[in-house]
């Protein structure tokens, strides 16, 4: 499996063809100490055999579609279900398990960039329309790792692409991310309704709940709160509704490790961000540094449309029609 590395004077991002999976991001702190800030494995063999969502590109529809069902213009579709009775992250063979075609590209705004592309056939995982997808991974001079997604379809379909890295700014495998401070420009979130984490369709204020990250606070303080939404999945696995969403790329959140001082800002043009604290990691698998991967080993910050959007009229529209272009930007900017 070929690995590709993007480098500027501070940061190094390495990814592979399978799933476009980001297998390491090496970032210095203010003293110049380098840490690899994404959860993963020490070897390629473990990476290929391990959790296929770590750092991967997810699609055609990242997150859950309840029952794998949706309708476009009255036509009903039934996707394959791979998460009990739901469709998760594009199904059994989502984009995370596909080999992407990788080519170096030269773009003025990036010190270095690669284009990853794939074709998703009409009917793949039972989605309608042949989809041409391209993703740019670019690194800027000022430590922004930029992901630019584009897609076009031959038939009306649904789309929600995301990147599934779990960040640990102490260095993956060295300490839990539970004491990271998280801030989100989101005064509302979408609650879940069952153990499987499916969105209920409501949009509610975060005020007075553990989901209020409008001012920075530790992830632990939210996860330790006795609240039915937290108890249901032993942590956070929720979509936050970005304030003042207008389709342009804006700062939506910040993650900070108070110990090293490493900080990551997240920018996107998407209406939502899924925060996942990795409740399903039970320590049975060893990751980087030989350390067991436990809950809160890292925090996923997945920019996206909302979960199950195709079935809720009050959620943003996830339909892509022929002649339209899906455009999604996500930036992870590292600061000291
Ligand atoms: C979801 C989790 C799911 C995980 C699988 C996350 O994006 O929010 O519910 O278990 O992906 O890796």
TrEMBL record:
Catalytic activity line of the entry: alpha-D-glucose = beta-D-glucose
EC number: 5.1.3.3
Annotated GO biological process: galactose catabolic process via UDP-galactose, Leloir pathway; glucose metabolic process
Keyword Coiled coil: no
Cofactor: Ca(2+)
Matches recorded under SUPFAM superfamilies: Galactose mutarotase-like
Pfam families, A to Z: Aldose_epim (PF01263)
UniProt entry tagged with the keyword Calcium: yes
GO molecular function, one term: aldose 1-epimerase activity
Pathway the protein takes part in: Carbohydrate metabolism; hexose metabolism
Matches recorded under InterPro entries: Aldose_1-epimerase, Aldose_1/G6P_1-epimerase, Gal_mutarotase_sf_dom, Galactose_mutarotase-like, GH-type_carb-bd
Binding site for beta-D-galactose: 63-64, 164-166, 237
Active site: 164 (proton donor), 302 (proton acceptor)
Annotated Gene Ontology cellular component terms: cytoplasm
Keywords: Calcium, Carbohydrate metabolism, Isomerase
Self-association and partners: Monomer.
Family: Belongs to the aldose epimerase family.
PANTHER family xref list: ALDOSE-1-EPIMERASE, GALACTOSE MUTAROTASE
Protein name: Aldose 1-epimerase
């Amino acid at each position: 499996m070929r690995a590709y590395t993007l480098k500027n004077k501070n940061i190094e991002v390495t990814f592979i063809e399978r799933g476009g999976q980001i297998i390491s991001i090496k970032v210095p702190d203010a003293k110049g100490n380098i840490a690899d800030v994404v959860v993963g494995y020490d070897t390629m063999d473990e990476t290929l055999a391990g959790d296929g969502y770590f750092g991967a590109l997810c699609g055609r529809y990242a997150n859950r579609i309840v029952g794998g069902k949706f309708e476009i213009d009255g036509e009903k579709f039934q996707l394959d279900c791979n998460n009990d009775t739901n469709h998760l992250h594009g199904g059994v063979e989502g984009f995370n398990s596909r080999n992407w075609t990788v080519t170096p590209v030269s773009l003025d705004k990036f010190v270095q960039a690669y284009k990853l592309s794939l074709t998703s056939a009409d009917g793949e995982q039972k989605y309608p329309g042949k989809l041409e997808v391209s993703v740019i991974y670019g690194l800027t001079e000022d430590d922004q790792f930029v992901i630019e997604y584009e897609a076009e379809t031959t038939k009306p379909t649904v789309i929600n692409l995301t990147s599934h890295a779990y960040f640990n700014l102490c260095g993956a495998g060295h300490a839990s991310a539970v004491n990271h401070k998280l801030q989100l420009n989101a005064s509302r979130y979408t609650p879940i309704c069952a153990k499987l984490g499916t969105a209920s369709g409501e949009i509610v204020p975060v005020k007075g709940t553990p989901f209020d990250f409008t001012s920075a606070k530790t992830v632990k303080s939210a996860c330790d709160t006795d609240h039915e939404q937290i108890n249901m999945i032993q942590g956070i696995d929720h979509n936050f509704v970005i304030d003042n969403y207008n389709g342009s790329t804006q700062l939506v959140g910040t993650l900070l490790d108070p110990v090293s001082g490493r900080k990551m800002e997240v920018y996107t043009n998407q209406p939502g961000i899924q925060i996942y604290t990795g409740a399903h990691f039970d320590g049975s698998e060893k990751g980087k540094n030989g350390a067991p991967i436990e809950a809160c080993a890292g925090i996923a910050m997945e920019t996206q449309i909302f979960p199950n959007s195709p079935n809720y009229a009050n959620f943003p529209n996830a339909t892509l029609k022929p002649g339209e272009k899906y455009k999604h930007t996500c930036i992870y900017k590292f600061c000291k």
